[in-house]
Specification:
The complex is a heterodimer of chains A (332) and B (256).
Chain A lengths: L2 E7 H12 L9 H4 L4 E15 L7 E15 L15 H7 L8 E7 L9 H13 L6 E9 L6 E12 L2 E5 L1 E4 L19 H14 L7 H51 L14 H10 L38
Chain B lengths: L5 E7 L7 E5 H11 L8 E8 L4 E9 L14 H18 L5 E10 L20 E12 L6 E5 L2 E4 L6 H26 L6 H57 L1
Parallel strand pairs in B: 1-6, 2-4, 2-8
Antiparallel strand pairs in B: 1-5, 3-4, 3-5, 6-7
The chains are: A alpha/beta (332), B alpha/beta (256).
Chain lengths: 332, 256
């Protein structure tokens, strides 16, 4: 198996942690609405590349590098859960939860468990194996996050996270790297240079200089990348405004639903009990008649008097109970 | 060779007396995203919130700051930054209807365990576990008396659930790529103004600028944009579901 590494952007990890914090607290007002946020799917891309390296022992060492890039997470839909109590995966539900062919980008699933160890449970292993087979992805990963309090004073908290993958039904941890600016190769600005006095060198530079510099000595590449970055910032601002509006809309609806539920509950409490429609008891007369004809004398279908322990009291007992007496040989 | 990624954040609050600190989950999201944006340097920001009583502080949002001095084991906030933060706090106070909103603390990150408060057991992990870890801790520095050494006092910190991401936090979140770009542009401007450099070196430096901006776009802006789009999709789906539920409840109410 090639060496594998999972790369996850910081915002994805932060977002998963944020959603967990919104579910696992007594302060959550609408627990039912948020209970589904503890688990979900991971979408992204998986790549395997052949690489060659020169080592001291060989000048053609071929190895495979497998990288799994996490792009986003998809919390499970509140109405559906994609597996049952025995870990069997419901593909119909899974497809409903991932419209628009997102299933092609399904690279794993995740779960958050507070104050537990970084070990997969039996059910999680079963679900993982079943999901792996259902989506036909042998490299499917499982991301487990386990938040906990480190100090008794609740001043320090930690969240451990790891990804698991199965091979021949054995689970191995795959290293996770949180992609960030610092992990990229350092390339620094130069403030000095080694002068070159070659005439040919200067001729080549002069010949191609205009492709890099504008007449006012600004660099074309720098201008273009600045423009691209400005467009990126504008896109971020635009999306930010849309998300802000949608957050407000969600909040307004939640408030309206809470008010409606309160009103309904209040109205229900004012309705007198006799007016409350009770479900009518329906009798199956045909069944009753059949049982009477088939088992006319069966005590199970007759009215009986029972003791406190549920033992039927026989109706034909004499007034005085007979007591056992010692055996006496009959007179000759 | 795999990499174990450990980033630590610490919230520091400078007042006297024992406090409880509450941070809204969306402020926590912005702060964590900021801290996870780089493992090569410490990031820092300010916490905006309210003091509820003498002992309880609520953090509602954060302001991401540029670091003027990026040397290790030191963080500095300039008077201009503090002044700008106070102005921002006033603006948010008007926006959110919380007139007591102000700067209540600051946060910074400790990637790769540079310097960590001694009261926290970092528990250096066995590298073979391949498990990532993120910690956050809250403390205040107090002096028993004037002139004495500062001591660290633990402050219980709780992240309060917030079922939505507030406007202030959304604006702070998208501020990060803008600040990173500004830092890079300022650095490049200083370098490019060095008139003694030859064209090849200038082209090299231009490429460094391009490369750094590309890194910011791919490591920070891109994933953030992805997250915003996903959040919008999720909210729109939730709105549709909530609308259906609302109609159902209205029907139920009408039938009563």
């Amino acid at each position: 198996m090639a060496d594998s590494t999972v790369y996850m952007p910081g915002i994805v990890l932060s977002s998963v942690m944020f959603q967990h914090l919104n579910t696992d607290s007594d302060a959550v007002v609408d627990k039912e609405y948020y209970s589904w946020l503890r688990e979900g799917f991971i979408l992204g891309e998986s790549k395997e590349e052949e690489k060659r390296a020169i080592t001291d022992s060989t000048n053609d060492h071929v190895y495979f590098e497998h990288t799994i890039h996490v792009q986003k997470h998809l919390p499970c839909n509140r109405l559906n859960k994609f597996y049952n109590g025995t870990g069997e995966v419901d593909m119909v539900t899974l497809r409903k939860m991932m419209p628009d062919n997102r299933q092609d980008h399904l690279i794993g699933w995740y779960r958050q468990r507070r104050n537990t160890e970084q070990r997969m449970t039996l059910r999680e292993r079963l679900v993982h194996e079943n999901l792996k087979n259902a989506v036909a992805n042998p490299d499917l990963i499982f991301l487990l996050l386990t938040p906990s309090e480190v100090t008794s004073a609740c001043s320090t908290h930690e969240t451990e996270f790891a990804t698991f993958r199965s091979l021949n039904r054995r689970f191995h941890k795959v290293p996770v790297v949180v992609s960030n600016l610092g992990s990229l190769e350092d390339v620094v600005y130069r403030t000095s240079y080694a002068p070159c006095s070659s005439a040919g060198y200067h001729r080549v530079v002069q010949k191609h200089k205009s492709k890099f510099f504008s007449p006012d000595d600004t660099q074309r590449e720098v201008m273009e990348i600045n423009k691209m970055n400005s467009s990126m910032q504008a896109e971020l601002q635009k999306e930010c405004k849309k998300v802000e509006k949608s957050e407000q809309e969600v909040q307004t609806l939640l408030a309206q639903l809470t008010a409606l539920r309160k009103l309904i509950s209040k109205k229900k409490s004012l309705i007198p009990e006799k007016d409350v429609l009770r479900p009518s008891i329906r009798e199956n007369l045909l069944l009753e008649n059949s049982l009477k004809s088939l088992f006319p004398h069966s005590p199970l279908f007759q009215t009986q008097t029972l003791t406190l322990h549920g033992v039927p009291v026989a109706e034909s007992l004499p007034p005085r109970l007979t007591t056992p007496c010692p055996h006496v040989d009959p007179e000759p | 060779e795999w990499k174990l990624h450990e980033l630590l954040c610490s919230f520091q609050y400078r007042i006297f007396g024992r406090n409880n600190q509450f941070s809204a989950a969306d402020a926590f999201l912005v702060c964590m995203n900021h801290a996870l944006s780089t493992e090569k340097e410490e990031v820092m920001g300010l916490c905006l919130g309210e003091m509820e009583t003498d002992r309880i502080v609520h953090i509602h949002s954060v302001i991401i700051l540029r670091r003027s001095d990026k040397r290790k084991d030191r963080v500095e906030i300039s008077p201009e930054q503090l002044s700008a933060a106070s102005t921002e706090a006033e603006r948010l106070a008007d926006l959110t209807g919380k007139p007591l909103l102000r700067v209540v603390g600051w946060y910074h990150s400790h990637p790769h365990i540079t310097v960590w408060p001694s009261h926290v057991d970092v528990r250096t992990q066995d590298k073979n576990t391949k498990t990532g870890r993120v910690l956050y801790t809250c403390f205040q520095s107090t002096q028993a008396q004037k002139g004495a050494e500062y001591e660290r006092v633990e402050v219980p910190v709780h992240v309060v659930p917030r079922d939505s991401v507030g406007k202030a936090c959304l604006e702070s979140a998208v501020e990060l790529p803008r600040i990173l770009c500004q830092e890079e542009q300022d650095t490049y401007r200083k370098i490019h103004s060095l008139s003694h450099l030859d064209p090849i070196t200038k082209i090299h430096n231009g490429s460094v600028f391009t490369k750094n901006l590309c890194s910011q776009m791919s490591a920070v802006s891109g994933p953030l944009l992805q997250w915003l789009e996903d959040r919008l999709d999720q909210n729109q789906q939730n709105i549709a579901d909530l609308q259906l539920e609302k109609e159902r409840l209205q029907l139920e109410l009408a039938s009563m």
